[in-house]
Amino acid sequence: MITKKVLIRFILASCAFHVAFLSLAGMLISGGSSLPFETFTVQLSDLPKKEADDSRKAESKKDVSLDKPHKEPAAGPEETVDLANPSGKYRTYLRDLRRRIESLWAYPQDAYSRNETGTAVVRFSIQNDGTLAATGIVSSSGFESLDRGALAVVQAAAPYAPFPETFSLSTLHIVAKFEYDLD
User: Fold this and answer.
1) Cα separation of 94 and 124, whole Å?
2) How far, in Å, CA of 91 to CA of 107, rounded?
3) Would you state the pLDDT for residue 9?
4) Which helix (H) or strand (E) holds 80?
5) CA angle 123–127–129, rounded 5-degree value
């Protein structure tokens, strides 16, 4: 018959072993730090000047942040739109703008040779005369070469067409997603 002392020691040893094992398993999975998280939404109306990249930023050694504006934006009404879902009075303008960008867009050669994939979300601002006022990364692809490629094509497509008079805007902020996939 097992005595109470032996049984209590066995239970305490088992608990200590399980606590140690679970602690060690957590360190092995996460490398000693907390697991990364993904950001699912972006509030476009309150975008910060600089935003920390998601968990894949560690793969990219250099920080990719908003570029300085090329010139001061004109005072007046502004609006932010998504290039993927143009609607209303901006539909035709954004369709033409998207075609212009897509005609120049290419996979960055260095990223292609390293099999880098990812999605870069870029925000850029166009003034009413078609001048590119600012560009920046909203969400990093995790690779500087892909982020720079997305910014470069937006800059290469400038200057853009002036706004139609019906826009009544000084600046149009556009959010565009650049998906780099090797499939």
Assistant:
1) 13
2) 26
3) 74
4) strand 78-82
5) 140
Q: pLDDT digits over 24-43, tens only?
A: 554 444 444 433 333 333 33
Structure confidence by residue, pLDDT tens digits, 55-88: 344 344 334 444 444 445 456 789 999 998 887 8
How many other CB atoms are found less than 10 A from the CB of residue 53? 19
Helices (H) and strands (E) counted in the chain, each on its own, are 4, 4
The answer to whether residues 73 and 133 touch, using CB atoms and an 8 Å cutoff, is yes
More confidently predicted of 163 and 72: 163
Query: Rounded to whole angstroms, how far apart are CA atoms 61 and 8?
Result: 53
User: How is 17-29 classified by DSSP, letter by letter?
Assistant: HHHHHHHHHHHHH
Let me know if domain 63-180 sits in CATH 3.30.1150.10. Answer: yes
Mean pLDDT of 156-179: 95
Q: Which amino acid is at 55?
A: S
Closest CA to 153 of 114, 112, 97, 110: 97
